[in-house]
Amino acid sequence: MYDPYEHAEQLGITVLHRPIRTAHELWLPDHRTIVIRSGLRAIHDRSALAHGVAHAEYGHESSGPKEETQADRLAASRLIDLGQCLELMKWTPDCHVLARELGVTTRLTRVFLNVNGLAA
Length: 120
What we know:
By secondary structure, the chain is mainly alpha-helical. The protein has six helices and three strands.
């Protein structure tokens, strides 16, 4: 199972939790730091950090639509197991339920379903 905290540590990225208002996470490339909004639920925290690590790996210096899409796709592919998702989809098509069961945000679940041609 993918652990974004472990991955960030391996990459030498500092992870801080702070009361930011503009996003769930901020990638600060000049400082090799990802700031996660403090107080997030575990699912949102983990998803935000995976997204931030993806920005770091791509070397993103900004966060335009292209960069956000790339980071979402990579984060979703790391956090969601295709086999587990397919098994869950046998008993529910509801994206919110799938997200909760997969332990990720609804946004990343939708991205994963779209990328893998599973969206209804």
